[in-house]
Amino acid sequence: MEMFSEVLGEKINIPDDPKRIVSLAPAITDTLYALGLEDRIVGVSVFCDKPEKAKLKPKVGSYFKVNYKLLEELKPDLVLVTTGAQRDRLFELREKGYTVIPVPLPVNLFDIISNTLLIGIVTNKHDDARLLAMKMLARIYDMAEENTIGSVYYEVDLGGPTSAGGITYIDHALRIIGLSNIFGHIRTTWIIDPDPSIILEQDPDYVIYEPKPYSRYSEDYIRKNLEKRGLSGLRALEKGNLIILEPNSLAHYGPSLLDTLEAIKYRIKST
């Protein structure tokens, strides 16, 4: 089939029914599995860990590097990448003759659903993608809160403390379940090394902490780390409202993000 890519600004010829698929992004891999394409996935990135069995697939590269020797051996007829950090890889792969589809970075939950439909189209699983999209929409509406139930400071370790601004899928996800992101008023994406004085001034009801990939930290370690940065006086920490996530959970924008959201909402409603 022939498809026009808004990212590339040109048409791409795609196999009618791709049989050998490589995914270089965790969210894409998660979506491929949700669409029942496990047997067609011949390679993934080193960060693809959802579902658990995705870890068993050959590791073709990361966000910034590709093992072209292995990629050549795998002979994919379709390679899926994200935009943003992988934009250079997109053009690099195209120059080497691979059929590459860029999947845009989402800025809200509905973009994640749109990406699910896009992946379904290019893999000839559009009917399954439509069904999955409907189920995702139903889950979003089921967990949606009309009113704000609390404020939250979200932090993820991306090589250093990082939070989410107002034009991110994370901000939208938190708002869906009734949480007001203290940096949601800032019209930006990621906030690197957020100012502790602003966090203290906002004094959120909850703190959500997400470790970097392949890391496991105890609550005591995380508390001490926050205290070293002058955040020991936060009301959320004093009341025990510190929510520690698994790595690659809320920062992950595949279908399983909804599992994380439901778990956070359940935790908050249980306190």
The ordered string of helix (H) and strand (E) elements is: EEEHEEHEHEHHEEHEEHEHHEH
Q: Using DSSP, what is the number of strands?
A: 13
CATH superfamily grouping of the largest domain: Nitrogenase molybdenum iron protein domain
Structural class designation: alpha/beta
Q: What is the fold named in CATH at topology level of the largest domain?
A: Rossmann fold
Radius of gyration: 19 Å
Taken together, the total number of domains comes to: 2
Distance between the termini: 52 Å
Number of helices: 10
Question: Under the CATH scheme, which class of the largest domain?
Answer: Alpha Beta
| Biggest sheet details | 6 strands, mixed
Q: What percent strand? A: 15-25%
Per CATH, the architecture of the largest domain is 3-Layer(aba) Sandwich
- Give average pLDDT, whole number: 94
Question: Features of this protein?
Answer:
271 residues; alpha/beta; Rossmann fold; five-stranded parallel beta sheet; 20% strand; globular
Would you write up a description of this structure?
The chain is an alpha/beta fold. The chain has 2 domains: 2-140, 3-Layer(aba) Sandwich (Rossmann fold), CATH 3.40.50; 146-270, Rossmann fold, CATH 3.40.50.1980. The chain is built from 10 helices and 13 strands. The chain has helices at residues 26-34, 68-74, 87-95, 109-122, 126-143, 169-176, 196-202, 219-228, 235-238, 257-270; strands at residues 2-5, 10-13, 21-23, 41-45, 59-61, 78-82, 100-103, 150-157, 161-164, 179-181, 190-192, 206-210, 242-244. The strands form 3 sheets. Strands 8, 9, 10, 11, 12 and 13 form a 6-stranded mixed beta sheet that branches. A hairpin with a 4-residue loop joins strand 1 (2-5) and strand 2 (10-13). Helix 4 runs antiparallel to helix 5 (126-143) and helix 5 (126-143) packs parallel to helix 10. The longest helix has 18 residues, at 126-143. The relative contact order is 0.12.
